[in-house]
Amino acid sequence: MYFTDRGLEELEERRGDEQVSMVWLSDRMRAFVDSNPEFEDAVERLATFLARDEDTEDEPLDEE
User: Distances in Å between the alpha carbon of 50 and those of 1, 53, 57?
Assistant: First the structure.
């Protein structure tokens, strides 16, 4: 089990019945990066992954 699996399981257990907006999620991700700037790249990659349509999963995340 990856360390992130434990965090995701906790998220499901604590907030699994809630519905959130993408604005709320973006705000929380920004707050996380503000508090933990060393994770900026990982959060950016996750945000890009979540923003893309499922049909574009095979595209690389590092398009510059």
Answer: 22, 8, 10
